[in-house]
Write the C-alpha cells for this entry.
Amino acid sequence: MSRRKAKIAILDFHGTLCERDCFAAFADFKEFDPYLISSDYDRFPAPVDGIVVPGGFSYGDYIRPGAMARTASITRALVEESQKGTPIIGICNGFQILCEIRLLPGVLLKNRDGRFICREVNLNVASRRNPFLRHVEQGVLRVPIAHKYGQYYASPETLNKLKARDQIALRYCDADGRATDESNPNGSAEHIAGVTNKAGNVLGMMPHPERRSLPWSAGHDGRLMWESLIAFREFACAAG
Amino acid sequence: MKYRVNVQIKDGVLDPEMETLQRLLKRSGVKGIRELTHTQSFEIDFEDGFDEAEAERITAAVAGDVLANPEIHDWTVEKV
C-alpha cells in the first residue's frame, strides 16, 4: 500500500509558544509532515490528518487562559474538523483553549496552591479511546507540566458524565499508577490531567508530551503518543 | 448605549487568590470577614444609533461566550 505522510497542522495563535517544540517532535518521524498554521486563517488546507493546539500564552491569557481564542478566525474550522473526527490534541494552553471554545468539557482554574508549577509528573493512561493514546501500551507516562492554570474543574454532573462515557483520558498518579492526593500537583478534580470529547477524537492535556519526544530529550514517553497516532492511521487505512 | 456585564465565580468553585487574600488579612489582624469574593466588571458601549435589540443580542453572546465561562461563572447584564 502506498502511503503519503500524515499532514499535521500545528496551530499558532497570537502568543502561542510551544509550536516549534511540537513541530520538532512530529518532524522527527518520517511518517509525519507537520506544518504551522496561523490562527488568522479560516480553514485548514486539505488533507488534515491531525491537529495540534500547542501550549503558550495565547492572547496574553487575557480574560482567562484560552478565552480569547474563541474570537480567532481558525476556531470555526477547528470545530468543523472535530466534528469530522479529525484527531486533535490540545496541550497546556491548547487544552485551556479547547475547553474555552467548548470542544472539551470543564475548565482549567488556577492551581490549588495558586503557584506556577514546573516539574515532572506521572500520568496514568485511564482511557485509550483517543488516537494519541489508543496504541500506548505503557500504563504510566512520565512527562513534565509547566502551568499556573492547570486545575481541572467541572461540575459534579459533568464529572459523572465524563466517568460514565470513559472521557477521562489521563490522571495524575504516582510511579505505580495510583492516583493519590500527593501525586495530584494542582488539585485537579478526579486527578484529571487529560480528557476527551464525547466522540473521543479530541484530547486535551495539561502535561507536555512534546518535551519528552526527541532523541536528546530528558525522557521519551511523549513519543509513544505520536507512535500511537501512526498506528491508528495505519489501522484506519487498512480498515478503509 | 452602554451595557455592564458583571462576572463572578460560582459558589463552590475554588478561588485561590481570594482565599489567599482572606487568609493574609486574617493573619494581619483583620477580623469578622466571612467570605471574600471578586467580581469582574465589563462595559460595552455601542455606537450612536445602533439597533438596541441587536446590541442586547451581541452583549448577551459576548458575555456568555467570552467574558464568562458558564462552567464556573455566574454573570449579569444591565443597561447603564
Notes: The mean pLDDT of chain A is 95.
